[in-house]
Amino acid sequence: MFSLDDQARGLEAAREQVAALFQSINAPHVVVPGRRAGPAQAFIACLRGTHGFSVGVYLWLSETKECAVYTTPATAQTPEEYRALQTEALGFVESMGFMMDNLNFRSLSPEHQAELLQSVPVWRGGRAATGGTPTVSPPGQPGTPAAQTGAALARLFSSF
Fold it and tell me: Which of 42, 88, 129, 133 has a CB 3.0–4.6 Å from the CB of 98, allowing a cystine?
């Protein structure tokens, strides 16, 4: 259900929109279409948006300093659908050899949440710590308001 989004290079979202964040505790060697194979770190971002919850996968290829963003058009309207999307994302990255850790984002203080979002590559250059409208930023282009990128956000963490 997750597919590679070649246009996405990261995510901008308000700290308050992050429902959960997972990070890999290992860096297996992975092959991503169109990129050089190498060690990678995985992140799963679960976001709360105007159309429900969305889940996306972000791979950081450390040797080449590239990313790969995997999205799904599915959004979750109920807690059961949200858990199913989260479980699907975990299964997806685990099938590539990643071992994931739930960072328990919501239980952290707002200050620690902001620090965490600034430290992970998913939000580097984004507005996660200061808030703002969630947007997808393709390479070389500034982010656009979510209202104008509804389809892109639906694909990118359905509203990471």
Answer: 42
Q: Which residues of the chain fall below pLDDT 50?
A: 125-160
Domain that holds residue 47: 3-155
Tokens 């679960």 map to which residue?
Answer: 46
Q: Is 112 left (phi over 0), alpha (psi -120 to 50) or beta?
A: alpha
Q: What's the rounded Cα separation, in Å, for the pair 129 and 118?
A: 7
State how many domains the chain has: 1
Q: Where are the beta strands (DSSP E) in the chain?
A: 3-4, 18-24, 29-30, 38-49, 52-61, 66-71, 100-102
Instruction: Classify residue 160: in a domain, yes or no.
Output: no
Is residue 76 a part of any domain in this protein?
yes
How would DSSP label each residue in 59-71?
Answer: EEETTTTEEEEEE
Is the model's pTM score more than 0.90? Answer: no
Residue 34's pLDDT is 87
In a domain, 52, yes or no: yes
Compute the distance between CA of residue 41 and CA of residue 34 in angstroms, rounded to an integer: 17
Residue 100, burial from CB neighbour count under 10 angstroms (0-12, 13-18, 19+): middle
Taking the C-alpha atoms of residue 109 and residue 115, their distance in angstroms, rounded to an integer, is: 10
